[in-house]
Hints:
alpha/beta; Rossmann fold; Four Helix Bundle (Hemerythrin (Met), subunit A); 2 domains; eight-stranded mixed β-sheet; two-stranded parallel sheet; 14 helices; disordered N terminus
Amino acid sequence: MTTLSSFFLLLCIIAAEGQIFRRRYGPPPVDVPIGRASSPVWGNITQRVDHFNPADKRTWSMRYIYNDECFKSGGPIVIILGGEWTIAIEGLMAGGVYDIACENGGYMFNTEHRYYGKSQPMSDWATENLRYLSTDQALADLAYFIKYQKENVKALQNSTVLVIGSSYSATLATWARIKYPHLVDIAYSSSGPINAKLDFYEYYGVVGDNLALASSSCFEVIKSATSEIETLLETEEGIANVSRLFKTCQPINVTEPSRSFFFNTIADTFAGLVQYAGPGDIERGCFQIENATGSNVEKLASYIRTQYGDSCMDSYNTYVDEYTPTNITTDMSRLWLYQICAELGWFQTSASERQPFGNTFALDSFTQLCKDLFGEKYGEELTSFSVKRANIFNGGDAPEISQYISVQGSGDPWYPVGLLKNLHPTKLAFFVQGSSHSADLSSVSESDSTQLRQTKLAVRETITKWLAEIK
Length: 471
């Protein structure tokens, strides 16, 4: 999702500077109480590389985690779906999902998405080997996982199944309920994008809205500085000055897509600020910008430099060089880039008029990156076709689904591609003002806004009600 964010940051955010697609996805961080005795257990299940070709008998080992400390006979299976990150035990030891599971006597699992973490189906990440990295294959993994657990854990044979996801894995939770309703009884989507989209220009529109809400003058400083930088980059002297101010690793290349990459790197800093903002975070960032000395360009550059620390700002060519190699590494950005290029889109462009970054990174800069990383066929035509396919198969922004909960927040730039309104009594959408990405997945807290607290409680009550009705 690039969109799809931090997540978080969180278990999934990668803070590698200079990335157009800095990963803003994943579950929020979980604070496990000191002294908690129970510890989840790691497991593995054998999966097919290709679930849709019976003649292909290749297999691989998929990791998962489980915790049965709260399980009571007849309780549900509660599965946290992994996304574009390495899974960790904390989510099964505390937090909102843990609370829901324990309130209902649930048996908890956390599954790891194919190709991420240590769940590797292939020997490397060459483009031809990434063709099995798709939502179709990932959802089939989940289907076989549920079947396996029900067959091999006697106490779970008749258990109701609740799947929960955050960000991209919330997309999977939604689509799992649609595609496998006989296996998945309830789905809870936290900040889940459900409408695949080629040009996701609304993302930075929401970033702009939240910057302006925090400080209109901050928005104007960024907007003015961006315009001034565009002018400066028209001369050699200006290029040298901007490169120095923003501490780029090499002089800025003003040809495309390098020019777009530079501006998108600036915008990405604010996307990360907004997407996971807690109370006062955006205001503090704006205060830092507004109270810096110098021109608007100098104010903006000063703020960007503080986010990079001792590092310099990378170039487009360096970025491509970093994510072209096909060896398996702990940095999984190449994998998410492939998913958005090959299937999901969600390219976060500057086409919205509600953001302060000008029209400085258009759609073609993203599709060019896809071709540079994965080959010429991975251009706009392929991504556009794949996006349409995903929406046809899964319902787009109006899926036919029941026993489904979606939570979005006005502070989350992903909300425009999520479900925003109730469609019937068993397809519920909560929209929380001021809430950031997957903030609803934490336990109820005194620091929650009134609406966020009410939403968390309503989600828990609804799930408990549905579980009782299904049982």
